[in-house]
Amino acid sequence: MNRREFIQRSLLMTAALMLPPINLAGDIVTAKDSLKWWQKTLVYQIYPKSFADTTGSGTGDLNGITAHLDYLKSLGIGAIWLTPIYPSPQVDNGYDISDYTAIDPAYGTMADFDKLVAEGKKRNIKIVMDLVYNHSSDKHKWFLESKSSKTNPKADWYIWRDAKPDGSAPTNWRSIFGGSAWQWCEERGQYYLHTFAVEQPDLNWENPEVRRALFDAANFWLDKGVGGFRIDAITYIKKPAEFKDGKPDGNDGMSAIHAATANTNGILDFLHEFKAKVFAGHDIFTVGEANGVAAKDLPKWVGKDGVFDMLFEFSHTLIAVPNEVWCRPADWKLTQLKSALDASQQATKNNGWYPIFFENHDRPRSVNYFMPKNPDKKSAAKALATILLTLRGTPFIFEGEELGCTNVAWDSIDDYNDIQSHAQYDFALNEGFTKAQALDAVHKFSRDNARTPMQWDSTKNAGFTTGQAWLPVNENYRDINAAVEDKDADSVLNWYRKLSKLRAENDVLTAGSYEILLADSEEIFAFARTLGNQKFITAVNFTDKTVTLPAEISRGFKILASTEKNPDAATLKPFEGRVGELRIKN
Ligand code: NOJ
């Protein structure tokens, strides 16, 4: 090599070394600076109806959220996902929308919303909206027009079909909330399709006018300065070309609609259009709710060639209720939970980003679901938080999860508000279960478990409202609440704050790679996060016994945070969760 070639080659090598790390929206990341804001923060999910009531109406409101922004700041939250706050008859608590660009008066006004966005901005907290675009309310003016005749301008904005010759529904599909997925409409003389409740008719995405109207509504909120979107039930928007009966899967002779319509071929075309016309070019994040998208398919959905930044897929939440049939729960093992989460981590390793969650408004409390055998729910909450806040991805915390809130168990099905709880209860009875068994399933899996009012303090109604709360407060509110936990250094809340700080201060917890450890252990949930020469290890004991850690993850281990007061590097105490640094040689 002559001198000139040598210099050229050296220059090339230097240039290669100076290349910026590839961004995670696409590929491998080596430094925190190359992450987007939403990859470095924590998201907090608010169920506005249950968060904080400032008027005494018994229902939470937007001003109640604004009043607690500093509380969220203390947790290190950078974005709030609001479940729907649009006008709605509230059949499914807001997931039945009757106007996509207004605020339900029960929650306040558009001025209150603008104030929330502005106050959030002052604290670096963005507001993320929930887009419910598979269906609207049956009270939406689009549907009222659509159902009025077969020839009106919005006649094909929804999914209409003639009855079978004998007058029965076009197919035997069972809706997700029970009963036929078809509802007869006298006015129009046809059936319409509803994947969820009768009052939630499915929109017809094949119609470009429908797509335009939906995209316009999303752009309306972008103009208001929102920080992103969670997109509801998105796997159902594309229907199959032919509507055929499914194989009956219950005593009612029906077949779950999910099997017939979820993730139909061609769905990604709609979603790419959505991305191009709404999301592209904005400094926001999008997270799709995609029930039924397997971890292995994630690369088609997220990342630079996909549609969304993140996708909620539910494999780890289905371990105890396969097929979401509450009366037929399964026994599960820790290795199942670990491998489901590991699959999602692997799938988003080089493509997209993972939204880590254990709870949301559709789920029972995580301490009951993921640690059913731990009677001490405080240690359960801390152990789970240790995983939630140190896995690779963006943690999503659901209101009250940071306090260690637990399930409720009300005496009668009539005490439950949740439409799905009633559907699951009726389904269980129809399958031959007793009332007590059906109620037991509701106790374990009801969505109302997460929807009870936020526990702020020890005063009446947990400080949620001065009126009559729309849903009863969990009786344990005097022990589990934000005010008490704020002052207790050992509380679940302060454990969340500690881990949040650890995450913010250590790039390895955001930008670092992930690797599962002790994959076959039925006792310990452990993984490593590595960035350059730094290696952090999370280890959580899922048993009520002290377990010994293998030398490779305990020797030279500096404990940075532990749920135990006097942790021992070589062992994990019952239900202990810890994060530490392992010195690795250069
Ligand atoms: C998923 C939402 O999270 C849930 O609460 C709702 O009932 C259904 N989609 C229907 O919108």
Compose a concise summary of this entry.
By secondary structure, this protein is of the alpha/beta class.
Integer average pLDDT? 94
Distance N to C terminus: 32 Å
Q: Please state the second-level CATH architecture of the largest domain.
A: Alpha-Beta Barrel
Overall body shape = globular
What are the bound molecules?
1-deoxynojirimycin
Key attributes of the depicted protein:
2 domains, 5-stranded antiparallel β-sheet, alpha/beta, binds 1-deoxynojirimycin, 28% helix, TIM Barrel, 586 residues, 18 helices
What this model shows, in words?
- This protein is 28% helix and 15% strand.
- The chain is an alpha/beta fold.
- It has 2 domains: 3-136 and 207-502, Alpha-Beta Barrel (TIM Barrel); 512-583, Golgi alpha-mannosidase II (Immunoglobulin-like), CATH 2.60.40.
- Strand 10 (285-289), helix 9 (298-301) and strand 11 form a beta-alpha-beta unit.
- The longest helix is centred in the first third of the chain and has 16 residues, at 3-18.
- It is globular and about 75 Å long.
Topology readout:
Blueprint: H1 3-18, E1 42-46, H2 62-67, H3 69-73, E2 77-82, H4 110-122, E3 126-131, H5 141-146, E4 160-161, E5 173-174, E6 182-185, E7 190-193, H6 208-223, E8 228-231, E9 255-256, H7 257-261, H8 267-279, E10 285-289, H9 298-301, E11 310-312, H10 334-347, E12 355-357, H11 366-370, H12 377-388, E13 394-398, H13 419-430, H14 435-445, H15 448-451, H16 482-487, H17 492-505, H18 508-511, E14 513-517, E15 524-531, E16 534-541, E17 547-548, E18 557-562, E19 571-572, E20 577-583
Parallel strand pairs: 1-2, 1-13, 2-3, 3-8, 5-9, 8-10, 10-11, 12-13
Antiparallel strand pairs: 4-7, 6-7, 14-15, 15-16, 16-20, 17-19, 18-20
The structure holds 1-deoxynojirimycin.
